[in-house]
Amino acid sequence: MVAQVVVSGILSGALYAMVALGLALIFGVMRVINVAHGPLLMLGAYATYFLYSMTGVNPYLTLPVTMALLFVLGMLLERTLIYRVVDAPELSSLLLTFGISIALVNIAQLLFTSDLRAVEYLTGSWLVGPVALSKSRVVAFVVASALTAGAFLFLRSTKLGKAIRATSQSREVAMVCGIDVGRIHLITFGLAAALAAAGGTLISVIVAIQPEMGQIWTFKSFLVIVLGGAGNYPGALLGGMLLGLIEQLASLVLTTQLSEAVAYVLLVLVLLIRPTGLLGGRQV
Amino acid sequence: MVAGAAAAVYPLVGTGYGVRALLQMFMWIALAGSWNLISGLTGYVSFGHVAFFGAGAYTTAILVTDAGWPWLPGALAGGVAACLLALLIGYPCLRLKGPYFAIAMLGLNEVLRALVSYFEGLTGGGSGLSLPTLQATERVYYVMGATAAAVTLVTYLIVTSRFGLRLMTIREDEVAAEAMGIDTFRHKLYAFLLSAAGPGIVGGLAARDQGYIEPISVFPLVTTITMIVMVLFGGKGTVWGPVLGAIVLFVAQELVWARFPYYHQLLFGAIIVAVVLLMPRGVLGVLQQKYRLPRTI
Amino acid sequence: MKAPPVLTVEGVRKSFGGVVAVNAVSLALERGRIYGLIGPNGSGKTTLFNCITGVERPDAGRIVLNGEHIDGMPPYRIAQRGVGRTFQVIRVFPELTALENLLVVTRGSAAAAEARALELLRFVKLERLRGEYAGNLSYGQQKLVEFVRMLMRDPSLVLLDEPAAGVNRTLLNDLLDAVKDLRDHGKTILLVEHDMKVVMGLCETVFVLDHGEKIAEGPPGLIQSDERVIEAYFGR
């Protein structure tokens, strides 16, 4: 029983970490709190659904397409709306992305209706000893881990990645070094949207899709960042795992609804006791 | 003054529909004005404010159905319950810096909805609670109107006091405020408690008037969104801004958007985006700046 | 018998992540004197300031103000105990008027507060601008407002963070005269400053920080010729 819970926690942990990484990047690089992160994930899920129902192609293969689509959408949002609140007090970006998020959800409701959709591709589980591993969750774990690892590699080794990290640490210094900060913001937001879209794709095979599915993801992503430490990107990994484990453990004892309340209480507790996150990071 | 007198007399001459509509408008004025007390004055954005509305509604409903309370004390008790909830939540959450507080409030809605479903025995869970019917829309109308007036009056008193100035310093520069000896936490908490009372009472009144509540009807995100849009549009941090926003948007809602119910949130989202980008001070805020009007506007 | 120091800092340490910003710094401030705190960029001056005012909590060490431990106290309480400070980057409340900026600081009788606020504004010749939003004032005027706002509570310890920054000569002289005036009234002043002329001309004792450690302490004349100080500023 415990083994099952631990494994489930780890499986979801990677997914949480990947989606949260995008949010962490936006906050770290642009000091913008993107409340619309969840809806971006939702759009990724819908994109996958439609690609799958129209072409029948393996949704895991259309992942790059979905990511590219949302990458572009992310950049579009940044270039038209977000860039204007990058230097404003954080309150403004909060309200702005909040407005964007409810607009996106409503648009989804209009275009797709609130009927539940699902991508019926990979069902069933593998049995490994006493533990049942849902196939779609395992694949999600593998893909999410790969993408997250890829993202870290990108941030660490490529010129663009390093520029992003530099901007995240100090925008002034980055500018002095000749980095086009505006372009960095554009790409960061697009990248974060792409990561969220990937999350949406992977999730679309696991749970039902509906326009409001993203909301809880926004909240959980924040929780992950808080757990791991704002601005501490590797911390997001740990935070994701932690959240996954705690959630699964809580669901052993409480009903699923209450386990969401647990996530909430956890957030408040961590913020109170150790606002810089468990691994230490920047304080907001 | 004139408006007040007109409003007082209206139920005698107006139609049933008209009375209900005005009742709703008063409710929104009270809600928007209350949200303004915390978010407009201190800059601490409360994304979960509808929680207080729902708490008031459920408290009143339970007191009326299970304990046989009359509706007016029930509604007031709803206000008290909302304040207690605000104390419970505010005490830990207001120690967080502004943006983190907002994030914490985001999740509040969901948690409360979950809790209501969990304590089914008391709250009727997902199937909701029914209250005995009430043929007193007019009386509710007056109390609602009184609440709206009270909230506006309280806002005026605060804005013209040093307490209000201190709240504003939290919005302007919390670090400097602390350095000047202002206990920002206590001030935020007071403002938060005050801002919960209105929605609590109004929630109780609304429950009484509707006769039936269920988790979705009293904890809807759209209520918080509407509160936010009204205050942002009218002018956050001003006295009459929320009133203006409530009236304008409520009327617009009734006239136009009732015909396009599915575009509701989209339009509100668009308004929020537009206001934040183009008119962050809201209508009255812009007028205040341009014509150097006193802050009590 | 000598009066006890107004402020003692004993062995205060503060690190951020892996970086030690302040490393076992100790100093004592006597009543009615002007002290300077200097050091190259990154030497820990602002962090030390922040520890004294409660914005940062020291990892180790003690800070005692007029006999009372203030390390670990929240900033507002330290301010209420009689510590006033100005900031490196001016922090007036832009949407409050100059008068309101001052009024907001005190409690108690509104009339008394207003009287005192007007008196202070008159002191810096800004009385006619009392109804102007602080955000609309010039840099120099904001600096003065911030300065007298700090005086509203009549602090016994005054901390000034780079008071000369961005200020023209005339205004600077007025400010310095005001500081000397405060000292003559028995207040204790500690200022962080990069402008050496100001420090040398105004301060009676100077502390020098480098890489978080106190490397020298003494009258300005001695400090100027101290080898370690010169090394710290001009490299090893």
Describe the structure.
Chain A has helices at residues 2-30, 37-55, 63-80, 90-112, 135-157, 159-169, 171-176, 181-204, 214-228, 233-253, 256-273; strands at residues 125-128, 131-134. Chain A is an all-alpha fold and 284 residues long. Chain A has one domain (2-117, 158-273). In chain A, a hairpin with a 2-residue loop joins strand 1 and strand 2 (131-134). In chain A, helix 2 (37-55) runs parallel beside helix 4 (90-112) and helix 10 packs across helix 11 (256-273). The radius of gyration of chain A is 18 Å and the shape is globular. Chain B is mostly helical and 297 residues long. Chain B has one domain (2-220). In chain B, strands 1-2 form a two-stranded antiparallel ribbon. Chain B is globular and about 55 Å long. The model of chain B has no long low-confidence stretch (mean pLDDT 84). Chain C has a single domain, classed as Rossmann fold. Chain C has a six-stranded mixed sheet with strand order 6-7-8-3-9-10, sandwiched between helices. Chain C has a four-stranded antiparallel sheet with strand order 2-1-4-5, with helices on one face. In chain C, strand 4 and strand 5 (68-69) form a beta hairpin. The mean pLDDT of chain C is 89. Chains in contact: A-B, B-C. The interface between A and B is large, with 46 and 41 residues.
